[in-house]
Amino acid sequence: MTPGENDPLWRLRHALAGVGLALLGSVLLAALLGRWIGDALGGPYGTRVAIYLLLVVYVLVGASVLFVKVAQHETAALTARRVGLWFMSLWLWPALLATRRRK
């Protein structure tokens, strides 16, 4: 028996690391998208900031929803593929929830 076996955070370590790394990448992508969309709309700097904040809030809500729904089932070791899956899930979380409700 290892010392962390009874610790709930230890059991969720793969999910925590996966969502954390995916969230870091998503915040960076949100900054780029905010800049590109703001420039495409021709708005001032405030427009880019507003778009960035909306994207970050969207991703944070997605991270919270996915972590609550999926974390207890995440037991496999963390790999680049799994981080990529978390990353894509953070951006597509409404579609994932919609398909899950239909089943």
Distance between the termini: 38 Å
Averaged pLDDT: 87
DSSP strand count: 0
Strand share of the residues?
A: under 5%
Structural class: mainly alpha
Number of helices: 4
What does the largest sheet look like?
A: none
Order of helices and strands: HHHH
Helix content: over 70%
Radius of gyration: 16 Å
Q: Report the uncertain regions.
A: none
Report the principal-axis shape. Answer: elongated
Helix and strand arrangement:
Blueprint: H1 8-11, H2 13-41, H3 45-70, H4 80-102
Helix pairs in contact: 2-3, 2-4, 3-4
Describe this entry's structure for a reader.
The chain is built from four helices and no strands. The protein starts with 7 loop residues before the first helix and ends with a helix. 80% of the residues lie in helices and 0% in strands. With 103 residues, the chain is mainly α. It is elongated, with a radius of gyration of 16 Å. The longest helix is centred in the first third of the chain and has 29 residues. Helix 2 runs antiparallel to helix 3 and helix 3 packs across helix 4.
Looking at this protein, list some descriptive labels.
single chain; 103 residues; elongated
Describe the structure concisely:
This protein is mostly helical and 103 residues long. Helix content is 80%, strand content 0%. It has helices at residues 8-11, 13-41, 45-70, 80-102.
